[in-house]
Amino acid sequence: MIEFLRARRRLWAAVGVVVGLILVAWDLLVPAAAFFPQYATRNDLRLAYAAAMVGLQQGYGHLYDLGAQKVAIESLGAGFNPQPFISPPPLAWLVTPLLAVPFPVALAVWTALLLAALVWTWHLLGPSEPLAKVAHLLLWLGLFPVAFGIIVGQPGALVAAAVATAWWLMRRDHPVWAGVALSLLVLKPQLAILVPICLLISGHARTFGAWMVATLFLGLLSLALLGPDGIARYRDVLAQTQTAARPWAAAERGAGGRRGDRAVRRLETKGRRA
Fold it and tell me: Which domain holds residue 186?
């Protein structure tokens, strides 16, 4: 069986190209088409962008002030859906340079950055054979969780790029720099939190140590900038996020809601669970 599969590698690569094209087409015609009318107003970048505004204008102690976040999001324009920003502070830091341009431009830059991160990940991890490499790219972009992350502006692509870069650096005997690259997991740690643990268990102590030092530095810097009040706010937001989000969602939907809005919410729920 193994020899049978090996003898038909190009055939499987061609099948992968076809399946990848189907997946990409479906993503563009169904989820993306449903989400596109609200691409700016419901994109997750609005949360980090508004949080960066709050941190810059009112101080990082107010980064998780839900009232300040809501005002900042609504200041972006009509129809923007306010939701709590609960990501770690480094995501707001990363987005801060985008405050120099209007939100639509920032959104275009952010989307390009996420796509570049996906292409970089594919470039590092994809096979060398041309047809198989194309198949990997199409399948990578066509997977719904990956496509959904781009559609709604989640930083998952940056986490994937960090893991791929760390692997690439380890292969070239740069374990410390690999650990530094892995520190970007703080942007969305739940996606790959087991990676450093697996590195430690498998004997890559230098990479794990570098990751630990870099992550502790970012954590301590975050705590210092937040201060006691900001830390207390973050703790409360993490504990009460669902309760805090419901009034905003109810106010936005109004009495009856809209069928298109419900469709977008179903797509959001499916993608976030994935």
Answer: 38-124+142-253
Centre a 10 Å sphere on the Cβ of residue 102 and count the other Cβ atoms it contains. 11
- Assigned domain for 24 exists: no
DSSP 18-43: HHHHHHHHHHHHTHHHHHGGGHHHH-
CA distances from 171 to 124, 165, 167, 188 (A): 11, 10, 6, 24
pTM over 0.90: no
* CA triple 241-248-80, angle to 5 deg: 115
pLDDT in tens, 95-123: 999 999 999 999 999 999 999 999 999 99
Amino acid identity of 21? Answer: L
C-alpha Rg value of the chain to the nearest Å? 21
CA distances from 230 to 60, 90, 161, 210, 223 (A): 7, 14, 30, 28, 8
CB 155 within 8 A of CB 118: no
d(CA 273, CA 259): 21
Residue 89 and residue 260 in contact, taking contact as beta carbons nearer than 8 Å: no
Residue 220: count of CB within 10 angstroms of its CB: 10
First CA to last CA across the chain, in angstroms?
32
Establish if 4 belongs to a structural domain. no
Quick: pLDDT tens for 24-62: 998 888 877 777 888 888 899 999 999 999 999 999 999
Integer angstrom CA distances of residue 152 from 20, 99, 111, 264, 265: 21, 19, 9, 11, 12
Evaluate whether residue 3 is within a structural domain: no
Number of independent structural domains in the chain: 1
